[in-house]
Specification:
By secondary structure, the protein is of the alpha/beta class. Helix content is about 65%, strand content about 10%. Bound molecules: adenosine-5'-diphosphate.
């Protein structure tokens, strides 16, 4: 029983409710036998005058009729009780598991997501949790209660006639062995089926996400072929898995039902030997007809249970992934940032190598360098999207490893190029910066971020819904929404990824204006692509192949004639070339 608690990862309340659900199922199963006991008694009453020559006891028959009706009524109530206990428990527990899984995912470092694709996590939260829910409502209580009820009935029947009772259940161990012995084979095919299902959901997601590219490059044939083959593969895996389970379950069922023949055979032998009376024989025949139906259900539930163990094991793996932790009630004295010999690797190869850098409070520091030199990675280590491999990062003198990631994020705003917008109104998209902000605060931030210009042209102004990931807005407009968010959040540290996408001059001008509002009296870390725009920064850190190769003010670095000066000159030349063209 405790193994089940662990396997299904039930909470204490869930476990308590689960036990009650199993008890309710046992009660229902036992109640199912009441009408049979009444029928047997009625048959005995009817046969009695024939066998012993007396008169028919009509009063007893009427009493039995009343008992039959009472048994039916009782069955109705216990079944209703079972339904409530089982399903309410399952739904409550699965809601809890789903929320816990989502909460846990939120606390995992980005390194976890780097190795996973989205469809796997979606499967974890949706399909795996649904599996646990199904296991708890439809499978395990039924499975356990059938085992308990069958054991109880065997013991009771043994008192009546132990040889008949044993013959009734003689085939059960063989049938169970068939299912249990083929478990590994079923698990193997089950796993393959689950992987095929996940592959399909990944393909569907990719197909829909990339539909624009698919259409514009005429890839629909090729891409739908990949999806079609994933679907076909899933179909075959399902057929193999279901077919295999079907063969073993049918075989086990046939063997189990052959037990009925054994009951008759043993019964007839005992009857002819005179050691069994016809009434008991009849009782065993009727009971054997009834007892096999829950046992047959048990045989079909077992493979389903094994299949679900695959999902629960995956959920368990997700739940045991180490979350990022840290102190929540922390207050920082200042917002100076210091990197001390920081190294980091996504996989094997280091992409940040032994970087030490001081970013004083209320200053602007620009990270520059060729593409792939590690600028984005470095900027993502500061908010603990990833934890450093070596060295440490301090904010206000505290190691960020000791700060709760969500608390740490509360000190920071982000304006990244890959702005994530929700299919909601402009207003609500900006309000994400500060959930409890009133409308006036949102308008003020939006105005500073120059969102007024484009919202005026929208059909419902700030109340316009902007489509999935803001699909109805231009790149520049999306970025201004993200700046408005950051202004509303009013965090002391701002991480800014300067736009590389070619913006039209008007948009670029507006964004620069919006950014200059944002950077007032804050600690700014900007990933700069156009070096000209960061010449005024307090400090420029130049990266090359993950190393900090130069550091200083713009004019100092130009005078040094190193990498920065080289990159700067190349950009100036290309600008001149473009302008001259
Ligand atoms: P930059 O911002 O200067 O262009 P990045 O920090 O994006 O550089 O990348 C530095 C190196 O890390 C590159 O070699 C890049 O391929 C690698 N890299 C970036 N992001 C990931 C990731 N999520 N997983 C694995 N490698 C990555």
């Amino acid at each position: 029983m405790f193994a089940i608690k662990k396997t299904l990862a039930l909470s204490e309340t869930g476990w308590h409710d689960f036990k009650r659900a199993v008890f309710a199922c046992v009660l229902t199963n036992l109640c199912l036998f009441l009408p049979f006991i009444v029928i047997i008694q009625a048959i005995v009453t009817l046969l009695d005058p024939l066998m012993s020559g007396g008169t028919l006891d009509t009063q007893k028959l009427l009493l039995l009729l009343a008992a039959g009706c009472a048994a039916a009524l009782l069955y109705f109530f216990v079944y209703r009780n079972e339904y409530r206990k089982t399903y309410t428990t399952a739904y409550n527990e699965s809601a809890k598991i789903r929320i816990e899984a989502a909460e846990h995912i939120r606390k995992l470092p980005l390194s976890f997501f780097n190795n996973k694709d989205l469809s796997e996590l979606t499967t974890n939260i949706m399909a795996d949790c649904a599996s646990v829910e199904h296991t708890m409502s439809h499978v395990v209580p039924g499975l356990l209660s059938t085992i308990i009820t069958s054991a109880l009935i065997t013991v009771i029947l043994c008192f009546y006639e132990w040889r008949m009772a044993l013959s009734l259940f003689a085939a059960l161990p063989i049938a169970l062995c068939i299912i249990l012995l083929t478990r590994t084979l079923q698990a193997k095919f089950g796993e393959r089926h689950v992987i095929a299902k996940m592959n399909v959901s990944g393909q569907v997601q990719e197909y829909l996400e990339g539909i624009k590219v698919v259409k514009s490059f005429g890839l629909s044939g090729e891409k739908s072929k990949a999806l079609e083959s994933a679907l076909r593969n899933m179909m075959w895996e399902a057929i193999k898995f279901e077919g295999l389970a079907g063969i073993f379950v049918t075989l086990a069922s046939i063997i189990l039902q052959a037990g009925m023949g054994l009951v008759i055979l043993v019964g007839v032998t005992l009857l002819s030997g005179g050691s069994l009376d016809p009434i008991r024989f009849l009782m065993f025949v009727i009971i054997s007809a009834k007892i096999y139906s829950p046992l047959l259900v048990l045989l079909t539930l077992l493979p389903e249970f094994f299949y679900m163990l695959i999902s629960t094991a995956r959920l368990q793996r997700l739940r045991t992934e180490k979350a990022m932790t840290g102190e929540e009630n922390i207050s920082l004295q200042n917002y100076d940032i210091e990197l001390q010999s920081v190294s980091f690797a996504y996989g094997g190869e280091e992409v940040i190598k032994d970087i030490s850098l001081k970013i004083p409070q209320n200053s602007m520091t620009a990270l520059v360098g060729p593409s792939g030199s590690g600028k984005s990675t470095l900027s993502r280590l500061i908010p603990r999207f990833w934890d450093v491999k070596q060295g440490k990062i301090l904010i206000g003198g505290r190691n960020i490893r000791d700060i709760d990631p969500e608390r740490l994020l509360s000190y920071m705003s982000f304006v990244f190029q890959d702005v994530v917008l929700f299919n909601d109104t402009v207003m609500n998209n900006i309000r994400i910066g500060k959930h409890d902000a009133d409308d006036e605060e949102v308008f003020a931030a939006a105005k500073l971020a120059r969102c007024d210009e484009f919202t005026a042209a929208l059909p419902r102004g700030y109340e316009t819904v902007i489509g999935e990931n803001g699909s109805t807005l231009s790149g520049g407009e999306r970025q201004r929404v993200s700046i408005a968010r950051a202004l509303l959040k009013n965090a002391p540290i701002v991480l800014l990824d300067e736009a590389t996408a070619s913006l039209d001059p008007e948009n670029e001008g507006l964004i620069q204006e919006a950014i200059s509002e944002l950077v007032k009296s804050r600690t700014i870390i900007v990933i700069a692509h156009r070096l000209r725009t960061v010449m005024g920064a307090d400090k420029i850190a130049v990266l090359e192949n993950g190393r900090l190769v130069e550091e200083g003010r713009g004019d100092e670095l130009l005078a040094k004639k190193g990498l920065f000066a080289r990159l700067y000159n190349i950009q100036q030349e290309s600008l001149g070339w473009t302008a001259g063209k």
